[in-house]
Amino acid sequence: MPDLLATKRGRLLTFFLLYITEGIPLGFAATAIATQMRRNGVPPDQIGTFVASFYFPWAWKWAAGPVVDLLYSDRLGRRRAWIVGCQLVMAATLLAAMPIDFSKQIALFSAVLLLHNCFAAVQDVAIDALAVGTLKDEERGLANGLMFAGANVGQMIGGAGVLLLVNTSPISTTRSSSSPGASWR
Predict the structure, then answer these.
(1) CA angle 99, 103, 104 (to 5 degrees)
(2) Contact 71, 63 (CB under 8 A)
(3) Whole-angstrom Cα Rg for the chain
(4) How far is CA 42 from CA 12, 46, 65, 79, 101, in A?
(5) CA distances in angstroms from 53 to 2, 46, 50, 174, listed in the order given
(6) Are the beta carbons of 136 and 3 closer than 8 angstroms?
(7) Which stretches within 5-139 are classed as H helix?
(8) Domain count, the chain
(9) 3-class state of residue 162 by DSSP
(10) How many of the other CB atoms lie within 10 Å of CB of 170?
(11) How far apart are CA 112 and CA 96, in angstroms?
């Protein structure tokens, strides 16, 4: 596979795509899951607490910075191990969240997604550090705009995109009310 960070176009594309991966979980939780919770009769105050819990890990990103800078793999690179490692843990937390009925077990579901967002925040630190170390001075403004756009595209995919798929999926209308994913009806 070619080194995407070797060219200007590759660097811009890489950071845009990495930020899409950061936006998807937030859109999924804050839009798709919150909407489904409301459709299932979860009170607004519980939904608000659920959504607010996702923003907490982002408040301590400053503490993750030194850890990301000091702990790294010479074999994998200073940032790649953090980015890939966080992606793997984020995938594992989503798999762990799948059997949980988020309308009835909000505390457990919130805890799993809070852990998910902790790793998303650390991934953000690693991606930003990679950007600072990789981008040339004249690329940083455009790259920052593309990164911001990527995060918003990811939020749209994770939120409205998931809701669109759920509302058109034949699975969403055939599950029994006792199955863990029944709340997606």
Answers:
(1) 80
(2) no
(3) 18
(4) 41, 7, 37, 40, 12
(5) 39, 11, 5, 31
(6) no
(7) 8-27, 34-39, 44-55, 61-70, 80-97, 106-134
(8) 1
(9) helix
(10) 6
(11) 7
Any idea what the CATH number is for the domain that residue 52 is in? 1.20.1250.20
Task: Please give the pLDDT value at position 97.
Answer: 93
Task: Calculate the alpha carbon distances from 31 to 26, 45, 175 in Å.
Answer: 8, 15, 22
Indicate whether 167 pLDDT > 90: no
Q: Could you tell me the two tokens for 163?
A: 């809701």
Q: How far apart are CA 5 and CA 78, in angstroms?
A: 14
Token pair for 116: 């998910």
Enter the tokens of residue 33.
């899951």
Distance between CA 109 and CA 86 in Å, rounded? 19
> Residue 177 and residue 182: Cα distance in Å, rounded?
5
Q: Look up residue 87 and give its two tokens.
A: 């992606």
Q: What is the pLDDT of residues 144-164, one digit of tens each?
A: 999 999 999 999 999 999 999
What's the length of the chain?
Answer: 185
Distance CA 50, CA 71 (A): 32
Which tens digits make up the pLDDT trace of 64-117? 999 999 998 888 888 999 999 999 999 999 999 999 999 899 999 999 999 999
Q: Please state the pTM of the whole predicted model.
A: 0.82
Give residue 137's identity as a one-letter amino acid code: D
Structural domain for 44, as ranges: 4-184
